[in-house]
Design a protein that fits this description.
Largest interface: A-B, 59 and 58 residues
Radius of gyration of chain A: 23 Å
Helix content of chain A: 55-70%
Largest sheet of chain B: 3 strands, antiparallel
Distance between the termini of chain A: 73 Å
Number of strands of chain A: 2
Structural class of chain A: mainly alpha
Number of domains of chain B: 1
Strand content of chain B: under 5%
Distance between the termini of chain B: 19 Å
Order of helices and strands of chain B: HHHHHHHEEEEHHHHEHHH
Number of helices of chain A: 15
CATH class of chain B: Mainly Alpha
Shape of chain B: globular
Shape of chain A: globular
Oligomer: heterodimer
CATH architecture of chain B: Orthogonal Bundle
Helix content of chain B: 55-70%
């Protein structure tokens, strides 16, 4: 075992935590220019560390891989924390939406670099038309009072399927226009220039996120009406169904390029530090602003007490659905970023056992704590995936299996000793709540109401 | 108290006829069409190839009866502590492994013949196999009680989700600790059966299939394993009905599941009742594990995940907390899975199982036999 490697890794973990603290601190400064310069500097520092100066590189390829993975995981875990930590809906489906995002985005760019614009066209038009269909059906349904959830689900489903069919026809019709511009593999056309690819990548990530969000809307609308642990099981079922569909993507689903259980290879590696940082910051800022808005307080109040929230005039079902859809949107984006960094997708990555990873992260970081989630995502990837994997593999052939024995033991001990997570609900800098909310601990003693005295 | 409830009822205005919610027909029509399509496909297949259908039905029965044994543990534990015991599927896996070690390493199934050479070999095999099964059941019970004491009991007053996460942790621990080389090893292990498989075919009466002989075309085959699984599952069902309805501990179980504080006031030791529930559920999971391993003859440490989840789905389908519900739900699950494997494709079986779960939860959240949940304020 190398002591230097161990110390270096521990130093890296602390450096990352200090970096995150600094980033969140500088974002909390009131001056807009200080904020902007701070973010640019934060981006530049890592970019410099990643640059290869003639053989000298502060962060090796291994480290940069971990870094991108941690960024993707941060987005997924933040989404799950919105659903479970802030809104109190125990979901195991986050990994399914992560997989949907990864496969959707990968399919778009894979087809694009291979001279087929249909991926982008169909998914793009499909998500836009589908979104419009969902919005207009929702408006139309508002005219009625008390529509059963199954009926509204059926209408939304029909609308989404119609939109998807139209999108497929549009995509097939417009594809010949793009084909000459895309060129072939050996002779790339105008639209396959590096700049155009960056734009396509951006669109792919956004569309993948929106697609995941729309699927989560259709799925969540009926399923969120179930109780807490039934919802957990249904979402677990969703993850398993998505995984089975991935394994059969070339036989049951009509996507031969996804290659089913063998795994999708040849995805262009378009994720750079710029994009990973950009999307991660976007997710953090969106989520922070959401949580600190009145909508966010409505979402939190649903977790605290549904009956009281309802009495305050909060739309319970709407809040749950909104948190679920936004959380899945983050998961989709995270998946898209992950797919373009790793360049290879296999259904095994999105399996049932891995689907507990984001859950473990948010439980570690603290339910309802964004800082905790971000720190735990980075710490988890760097400590468990980076340090422990390398260390244990040096100790013997069987040692890597011990990693999976240690996960559940830590999880168990954490649940037994500190169920609120390592950081509890501490927030750093930018993420700190400006207005002071009444804490849950300061419950006023309820007057005893005995029915027989009335 | 009586007077109060009477007066409060008088204050409520007489119930008016409930108005039908708008657009309710859309959802009903959609799910009815879905049901009719599935029914038409199944019936058309039954008419076209009745023997094939019957063969799928028999494999579905086998699966369903195994699920029934696992589902009982889920439903009883959920009925009392309102916890989805994720580790139950792994207890099932441990049961299979215990019997594997007992048979392949220690030749425990041969002890009657070794100890009393004068008894008939048939009787010896029966007693030996029962010993193996009992051993698995006892070890699974001990394991489940340990898990309950160590992991779940400290969290009994915590939020339900904390206990659920703990259960997931326990499940992972059993899977990966079992995958270590000095425990069970991570490989698929061929399972050695404690008794021989005897198969029959049905065509103009029931005939024995002799070794090395293929059944004729158009015959429906079944084996003694199916018979044993069905018998064991039905016996377990009858035993549990007796236990829950007629014995003191059964009454205590029902009381604890209905109202724990009141049960405590009546002098019931709720903690030991909960431990007993875990023990008995795990014993049947162990039995199911042995029979599953005998039927499918290959074991590994993640064997229990999917059967466990599907048994849970079956318990929900039948109405969680209800013992006959778990049985019926498991049979339906088994059929659904076998028909999917036969008529759609093998990997889709998991997807179909969970799709059924989601649809059932949407249409009838309390399951087939479940009682509608009481309004709690």
């Amino acid at each position: 075992m190398e002591l230097g490697f161990l110390l270096g890794s521990i130093f890296k973990i602390f450096a990352i935590l200090a970096y995150l603290y600094g980033l969140l601190w500088v974002l909390a400064r009131p001056n807009r220019w200080v904020k902007l310069i701070g973010v640019v500097v934060a981006f530049g520092v890592v970019q410099l560390a990643l640059t290869d100066f003639g053989g000298f590189q502060v962060l090796t390829n291994f480290d940069s891989g971990l870094l991108f993975q941690a960024c993707a995981m941060t987005m997924v875990a933040l989404g799950l924390n919105l659903i479970y930590g802030f809104n109190g809906q125990f979901s195991l489906g986050q990994w399914g939406f992560y997989g949907i995002g990864a496969y959707t985005a990968a399919d778009i760019t894979y087809r694009w670099v291979n001279g087929d614009a249909r991926g982008l066209l169909v998914v793009g038009f499909g998500t836009i038309l589908g979104g419009l269909a969902l919005i207009y059906i929702g408006r139309w349904l508002k005219r009625f009072r008390g529509v059963p959830v199954l009926s509204s689900f059926t209408l939304y489903l029909i609308g989404a399927i119609l939109a998807g069919t139209v999108a497929v026809y549009i995509g097939n019709a417009l594809n010949p226009l793009f084909e000459p511009l895309l060129g072939t593999n050996l002779n790339p056309g105008v639209l396959n220039s590096p700049l155009a690819l960056q734009i396509v990548f951006f669109l792919a990530v956004v569309f993948a996120g929106i697609f995941a969000a729309e699927v989560s809307f259709l799925f969540g609308l009926p399923v969120l009406t179930l109780g807490s642990d039934y919802f957990g099981i249904a979402t677990l079922g969703f993850t398993i169904v998505v995984n089975v569909l991935m394994i059969n993507s070339d036989t049951i689903l009509p996507f031969p390029e996804m290659k089913g259980g063998r795994g999708m290879v040849g995805i262009p590696k378009l994720t750079t530090w710029f994009w990973a940082f950009f999307f991660m910051m976007a997710v953090i800022v969106i989520m922070r602003n959401l949580i600190q808005s009145s909508t966010g307080r409505a979402i939190i109040s649903v977790r605290e007490d549904e009956v009281a929230a309802k009495a305050m005039g909060i739309d319970i079902a709407g809040s749950k659905l909104m948190a679920f859809v936004i959380g899945s949107f983050f998961a989709g984006i995270g998946g898209a970023v992950y797919a373009h960094f790793i360049g290879f997708l296999s259904p095994g990555t999105f399996g049932f056992l891995q689907s507990f990873n984001p859950l473990i992260i948010i439980v570690f970081g603290g339910l309802g704590s964004m800082t905790g989630t971000i720190a735990a995502s980075f710490g988890w990837i760097f400590f468990l995936e980076g340090l422990l994997r390398v260390l244990l593999s040096q100790m013997g052939t069987e040692a890597p299996t011990w990693r999976f024995v240690l996960y559940p033991i830590t999880l168990l001990l954490l649940m037994l000793i500190r169920p609120q997570g390592l950081l509890g609900n501490i927030e750093w800098g930018f993420l700190k709540q400006k207005t002071v909310l009444p804490r849950a601990q300061t419950v006023v003693e309820k007057p005893e109401v005995v029915a027989s005295e009335a | 108290m009586q007077q109060l409830s009477g007066s409060s009822q008088a204050a409520i205005p007489a119930p008016t006829r409930k108005k039908r919610p708008p657009l309710a027909w859309v959802g009903q029509a959609f799910f009815s069409i879905l049901g009719i399509v599935v029914a038409v496909i199944l019936i058309s297949n039954l008419i076209r190839q009745p023997t094939l259908f019957a063969q799928f039905f028999i494999s579905g029965l086998q699966l369903g009866f195994v699920y029934a044994m696992i589902a009982l543990g889920y439903t009883m534990v959920y009925g009392i502590v309102k916890l989805i015991n994720f580790a139950h599927g792994d207890v099932f896996m441990v049961g299979a492994f215990v019997s594997y070690f007992a048979v392949a390493r220690f030749r425990l199934h041969q002890w009657p013949l070794a100890a009393f050479p004068q008894i008939s070999p048939g009787l010896g095999v029966v007693i030996g196999s029962i010993t193996v099964i009992l051993l698995s059941m006892v070890i699974c019970s001990a394991l489940a009680v340990t898990i309950e004491r160590v992991a779940y009991k400290p969290l009994r007053d915590a939020p339900r989700i904390a206990a659920l996460i703990t259960a997931i942790g326990v499940s992972f621990f059993l899977e990966y600790f079992g995958a270590l080389n000095f425990v069970f090893s991570p490989r698929f292990i061929p399972y050695e059966r404690p008794f021989e498989v005897v198969a029959w075919y049905i065509k103009d009466g029931i005939h024995l299939i002799r070794p090395g002989e293929a059944p004729p075309d158009g015959a429906i085959t079944f084996s003694n394993i199916l018979v044993i699984i069905m018998l064991a599952s039905i016996l377990v069902q009858i035993f549990l009905q007796f236990l829950v309805r007629r014995t003191k501990i059964g009454i205590a179980m029902r009381a604890s599941s209905y109202d724990k504080p009141a049960a405590r006031l009546m002098g019931i030791n709720v903690d030991s009742v909960i431990s007993f529930t875990f023990a008995i559920g795990a014993a049947f999971a162990g039995l199911g594990g042995v029979l599953y391993a005998i039927a499918y003859s290959s074991i590994w440490t993640q064997l229990g995940i999917l059967p466990g989840l599907k048994a849970f789905v079956a318990a929900v389908l039948g109405g969680i907390g209800s013992i006959p519900g778990a049985f019926v739900g498991a049979l339906i699950m088994g059929q659904a899975e076998a028909m999917t494997m036969g008529y759609i494709s093998t990997p889709m079986r998991d997807a179909v199982a969970f799709t059924i779960l989601i649809i059932v939860l949407l249409i009838r959240p309390t399951g087939i036999f479940g009682e509608p949940e009481k309004e709690k304020v």
